[in-house]
Amino acid sequence: MWEADSAKSERAGGKVVAAVVVVLLVLVGGGYAGAHALAGDKVPRGTTISGVDVGGLLRSDAIDKLAEEFGPRASTPIDLSVESAGSDNSQGNGAAVEPGDIGLRVDYAASVDAAGAGSSWSPGRQWDYFTGGDDVDAVVTVDEALFGAKLDELSEGLGTPPKDGQVTFTADGVETVEPVAGDAVDPDAARAAIIEAFLAGEESVALTVAAAEPEIDAADVAEATESFANPAMANAVTLTFGDNDVRLRPRQFAKVLSMEPENGELVPVIDQAKLIELVDEATTDGKPVDATVKLVNNKPKVIPAKPGVEFDPDEVATVFEGLLTASEGSRSGEVEAEVTDAEFTTQDARDLKIVEKISEFKTYYPHADYRNTNIGRAAKLVDGTVLKPGEKFSLNGIVGERTAENGFTEGYVISNGILKKDLGGGVSQMATTTFNAMFFAGLKDIEHKPHSFYIDRYPVGREATVAWPTVDLAFENDSEYGVLVHAWVQPSSYSSQGVVTVQMWSTKVWDIDSKTSERYAYVSPATRTLTTSDCEPFSGYSGFQVDVTRIFRKHGESAVDHTEKFHTVYTPADTVVCKKPGPPPPEDPEPGD
Predict the structure, then answer these.
(1) Are residues 242 and 370 in the same domain?
(2) Burial class of residue 255 in the structure, from the number of CB atoms within 10 Å of its CB (0-12 exposed, 13-18 middle, 19+ buried)
(3) Residues 443 and 478: beta-carbon distance below 8 Å
């Protein structure tokens, strides 16, 4: 009986204990929930973020407080000074930086979260809140590109920047510049110091100048020289366009090459625009150019033909660059292109055998601005003319119409036996000089017309006039060689005569002499009295006739091969008297007057 009562008693006691435990758990749980409710998403008590007290504040309030504290600092300048590493002395250079200019800002939300704000049932979170927080650094972001640019600007004049080693290319070969160490503002230290001053609200900061090594050192220079620069400049490179080779010598393409630093090493750079210029000098864009001969340093030089080539500039650059480090004998590469060959080839130009001066003639003229202009313009147009065997020279065809648009001005011409002003006056001086150069070169006279009356600065019976488009000077290259015409003018001045020079260059065939007869069949001048507004007074002289004989001897021989006679009739140059028009005759009186 007792045992049964005892068992019942024990069961009743167990129930009481369980009830007490439940009650205690309810009481503790209620306290924990209350603690969680009290902490919420607040920042742990006693917490500071970079010196700003935010302990116990709601997360949103803490964010607002940080913004209130740090926001204005973005536009508050921080003065900078500089000091050498290991020195206690600093010196300002008047520089300053506004944190906002380098993208320096505090991430308020991230800073508050890092300090422990945020709602959580974690016991640790409850413990951190009630036991107190720490001094936490604010989370800071910086725009590295803006910071780097600003630091370069602020560092100008501070310390001695290091100098990278360089490899350069000249017409004479490869040149190197050795690297030089320096001392410069330490960017990492500068970044940390500016951030620290910003967070602390300080108005100045000292930047440290420390030893700085160049990015491109001596080993980089040696590697670039050995692996690229020296092989590139060792030999010529040939680009092949169809059947046409464009050979580029190192002294030509040196200006195309450079080496630039990239990720701590020197890499080759090809200036594509300059490379294409070199190719264009040997080719043309689509239309070919015939070979020719020009005087260079007073010597005939064959100017090679240029094929018309259409190509992709990128492919030219790719092929060229690939050949630069190739060995000798393998420095030729084909470029895909559409090629049109010139009709008159480089070999054709060589076959002209324009190798020596075969004649030269000079004439002189008194000073006049219009002569300088007109004769100079005509000489410029004639200069460089190349006549192939059998081709004809036409002065009118080469010089063209004498107009202002063509570079000519008004001057005196002979019209109907008297002087008048017209565009192109003086060009006959060019015609006469060219005629005589042709005469002594032994070329075939096709057309020439002497002046109607004699002008004493020209060789009698051996001169020519021209007038657009009816009167021309024309001759034929009847030799088996090409003929290059070289013409120029030494302008006149108030104290000196002008000089016109025309040369013929070819292979000499003839030695020419000239014989001039006595003047005969004189005709006295008449006198004209003119009342026109364009009248020019003139003192006349007699006309006459004269004969000139051109004597041909084969070059180097004394025997006369044949002769050619030129007969010239000069009309009298009439005296011109200019008078003002008289009064009009009286009118007949009306009947009855």
Answers:
(1) no
(2) middle
(3) yes
Q: Are 327 and 236 within one domain?
A: yes
Q: Note whether 419 and 384 are within 8 A (CB).
A: no
In a domain, 588, yes or no: no
236 torsion bin: left (phi>0), alpha (psi -120 to 50), beta (else) = beta
Q: Which residue segment(s) compose the domain that 296 sits in?
A: 222-350
Token pair 């000079």 in the structure block, residue = 362
The answer for residues whose C-beta is within 8 angstroms of residue 511's C-beta and 6 or more apart is: 552, 553, 554, 555, 556, 557
Is the per-residue pLDDT at 448 higher than 90? yes
Question: In the structure encoding, which two tokens stand for residue 170, read together?
Answer: 């000249």
Distant-in-sequence, close-in-space partners of 228: CB < 8 Å, separation ≥ 6:
259, 268, 324, 325
In terms of domains, do 484 and 539 share one?
Answer: yes
Say how far apart CA 278 and CA 256 lie, in whole Å.
9
Does residue 41 fall inside a structural domain? no
CA 177, CA 193: separation in Å to the nearest integer?
Answer: 35
Task: List strand residue ranges (DSSP E) for 290-335, in order.
Answer: 292-296, 299-303, 308-311, 332-334
Q: How far apart are CA 353 and CA 461, in angstroms?
A: 32
396 sits in which H/E element: helix 395-399
Q: CA 310, CA 286: separation in Å to the nearest integer?
A: 6
Q: Does residue 341 share a domain with residue 276? A: yes
Report how far residue 260's alpha carbon sits from residue 249's, in angstroms, rounded to the nearest whole number: 22
Q: How many CA atoms lie within 13 A of 418 on its CB side?
A: 18
Residue 122's pLDDT band (cuts 50, 70, 90): very low
pLDDT digits (tens, 9 = 90+) for 378-426: 999 999 999 999 999 999 999 999 999 999 998 766 655 555 566 657 8
- Could you tell me how far CA 48 lies from the centroid of its own chain? 61
- List 260's β-bridge partners, or say none: 267
Pick the last residue of a domain from 326, 350, 374: 350
What are the backbone angles phi and psi of residue 287, rounded to the nearest 5°? Answer: -105, 130
How many domains does the chain contain in total? 4
Token representation of residue 174? 């490869």
Is the torsion defined by CA of 391, 306, 486, 454 positive or negative? Answer: positive
Buried b (16+ CB within 10 A) or exposed e, 420-452: eeebbbbbbbbbbbbbbbbbbbbbebeebbbbb
Task: From 183, 212, 241, give the residue that closes a domain.
Answer: 212
Same domain, 189 and 226: no
At 389 the three-state DSSP class reads coil
Q: How far is CA 54 from CA 59, 74, 130, 341, 569, in A?
A: 9, 20, 14, 85, 120
Q: No. of H helices and E strands in the chain?
A: 15, 36
**441 and 483 housed in the same domain:** yes
DSSP-derived secondary structure letter, 479:
S
**Under 8 Å between Cβ of 460 and 388:** no
Distance between CA 574 and CA 528 in Å, rounded? 7
Is the pTM here over 0.85, yes or no? no
Distance between CA atoms of residues 508 and 482, nearest Å: 11
Backbone angles phi, psi at 81, to 5 degrees: -130, 170
Across the chain, mean pLDDT equals 84
23 & 94 share domain: no
